[in-house]
Amino acid sequence: MCPVHLISQHVPKILATVEWLLTCQDDSGNWPTQAPDGLSGRVSDLVQWCHGAPGILILLSTVLRSSRKKYNRMPLDKHLEHKIITSLQHGATLVYRHGFLRKGVGICHGVAGSIYALLAVSDAIDTSNTSALGHAVRLAHIATKYESYISEGEMTVPDHPWSLYEGLAGMCCAWAEVLHRLESKRARKCSGMPGIDDLG
């Protein structure tokens, strides 16, 4: 976890960047793969951790959770908090709808990244009216049949099929995290994904 004294002087800039990122979300709930120039009007169809909604959802969930902790590293006004929650809901819907990716089961541009994004949203906003956890469980369950999807040509084998970020190791971590959540029946105090979880 990042010590408070290291981050506190940067909080205003971080929150300004968060506000800007919120303005970049498109009508589908996704974010562009590069900073928008306001002229192109192009829509990003990449829904993966490294390009699009899953990575931004993890960031926004971390900011929202940090604002609610007793030492409150990210003090949010109610307006910004509401904008973040709305953005998370919109993005999570997109990730659930398009998060079963053809590129494989890894974290970076595969199903595991979508699952971790939904778990982060679940930790930040799940109530009786939302079910990001349920959506993460559903994607994790569908991913158990990844070998069939590969053999049927519905999913490809990544360049590094066993690695954490491209391959099966990342999916194994996601399955373990989903199982832990189901067995514990409560949200974690911090979420993110393996190797990138230091802002808790």
From TrEMBL:
The keyword Metal-binding applies. Zn(2+) binds at C50, C108, H109. CDD domains: euk_LANCL. GO terms for cellular component: plasma membrane. The keyword Zinc applies. Transmembrane segments: none annotated. InterPro entries: 6hp_glycosidase-like_sf, LANC-like. It comes from the Eukaryota. GO terms for biological process: carbohydrate metabolic process; peptide modification. One of its GO terms (molecular function) is metal ion binding. Keywords: Metal-binding, Zinc. This is Terpenoid cyclases/protein prenyltransferase alpha-alpha toroid. It comes from Crucibulum laeve.
